[in-house]
Amino acid sequence: MKTIESMKDKKVLVLGLAKSGVAAAELLHKLGAFVTVNDAKPFEDNKEAQSLLQQGITVICGHHPEDLLDDGFELVVKNPGIPYTNPIVADALARKLPIWTEVELAYQISEAPLVGITGSNGKTTTTSLLFDVLQASKKNPLIAGNIGTVACGVTAKATADEVVVMELSSFQLMGTETFKPHIAIWTNLFEAHIDYHGTMAEYGEAKFNITRNQDANDYLIYNADQEIVSNFAARSKAQLIPFSSSTILKDGISADDDMIYWMGEPYMPRDIIALPGKHNLENVLCVIASAILLQCDQQALAHTLQTFTGVKHRTQYVGEFQQRKFYNDSKATNTLATKSALSAFNTPIVLIAGGLDRGHSFEELRPYMSNVRAVVVSGETKVRFAEFAKDCGVSIIATVDTVNEAVPEAFRLSKSGDTILLSPSCASWDQYPSFEIRGDLFIAAVEKLQQ
């Protein structure tokens, strides 16, 4: 960990705990800051706050005092999920106080080079696959960020001969000031989180923070097939590495039906990639470009691409039974994600869908329903999704109560060579606490079917 003096004797407010708040408070305390933590959870029920108090950190729990910032704070480090409309955050903005997320701290103390990965979709798959490639190439990778491991906790232990692969949300990036990864990856940009950012333009600006401070010694790998991302990339001072799944590029990485190309020259055959779908091809192109820039072993790269079958709950290959392949895409909580999943397969699909009814339309899926043999629906949207599927020309539609029941029903409706795909296009909260639990139930039902 780099020793930085900028935090010494500085009065810092950490707003919101959870894992990132605890890690930030402990790090700031270690760096010599005068830290105060404010969290809404009452102290008597707040084990994290109790632990921080024992370490000598000031804690204010159970409420957010309106006059909290009158105590002379010089910096606010907030939980990424806390919106900028929060009264304390708004007050900090009015006072022109810097407002960070712990990602900024992670960068400032890191001895290891960083690879930062952002985008509306594909972040987790790209991060996980790149980590596996670097590990196979003995590059000593560490994984951090939005994928579940607090970034500043990882970089505090990272050494100069390691590489930190960091998944970054727009919420995290919005709270950065000097953050500068050596390699930045921007997978795509679709309309999302407008309730948090206000406009699509502001959402894009938050994402742009991944490259805003980069210079000519750094690299930005970006989606050349999206004009909006290309326009942002044109503002970057990094070396630009565009990627495309539709056009062969002479200045980046690209693919056609047969080959992956690096700088316009054939690099490796496309058919070694185990992950299905155009969206995953884009993720893979980002990973290959990063691996080349980091001088990874090409054989290790090829082997990892052949064996990596996806991140859990994200078009995850579960297994094959009686010539039917099963895929768990429980993370598909909206039509955009289900559209990507449906377009990933050339075989007939038995689609398992439905969940929480937010009132959104399924119309975006219509062009992708032509390859769907049958639909099995459950959850609050089961009637609406069944009507939509019927209107799309799907003649085989079954209604069940749970995902556990959906798997044997989907198998019954399928034929040899079919793909059975859980891609709900809806959140899980009408029946399940999380998409992870929904996906785990799907996996368990597939395993039971195979017994």
UniProtKB/TrEMBL annotation:
> Start and end of every Mur ligase C-terminal domain?
313-426
Under catalytic activity, the entry for this protein gives: UDP-N-acetyl-alpha-D-muramoyl-L-alanine + D-glutamate + ATP = UDP-N-acetyl-alpha-D-muramoyl-L-alanyl-D-glutamate + ADP + phosphate + H(+)
Q: Where in the cell is it found?
A: Cytoplasm
Is Cell cycle a UniProt keyword of this protein? yes
Just give the chief location class.
cytoplasm
Annotated GO MF terms:
ATP binding; UDP-N-acetylmuramoylalanine-D-glutamate ligase activity
User: Pathway involvement?
Assistant: Cell wall biogenesis; peptidoglycan biosynthesis
Instruction: Tell me the superkingdom of the source.
Output: Bacteria
Q: Which residues form the Mur ligase central domain?
A: 117-291
Q: Which UniProt keywords apply?
A: ATP-binding, Cell cycle, Cell division, Cell shape, Cell wall biogenesis/degradation, Cytoplasm, Ligase, Nucleotide-binding, Peptidoglycan synthesis
Q: Which GO terms describe its cellular component?
A: cytoplasm
What are its GO biological-process terms?
cell division; cell wall organization; peptidoglycan biosynthetic process; regulation of cell shape
List the EC numbers from the record.
6.3.2.9
**Residues the entry annotates as binding ATP:** 119-125
SUPFAM superfamilies given in the database record:
MurCD N-terminal domain (SSF51984), MurD-like peptide ligases, catalytic domain (SSF53623), MurD-like peptide ligases, peptide-binding domain (SSF53244)
InterPro entries, per the entry: Mur-like_cat_sf, Mur_ligase_C, Mur_ligase_C_dom_sf, Mur_ligase_cen, MurD
Q: PANTHER family in the record, alphabetically?
A: UDP-N-ACETYLMURAMOYLALANINE--D-GLUTAMATE LIGASE
> What functional role does this protein have?
Cell wall formation. Catalyzes the addition of glutamate to the nucleotide precursor UDP-N-acetylmuramoyl-L-alanine (UMA).
Family statement: Belongs to the MurCDEF family.
Entry protein name: UDP-N-acetylmuramoylalanine--D-glutamate ligase
What is the source species? Kurthia sibirica
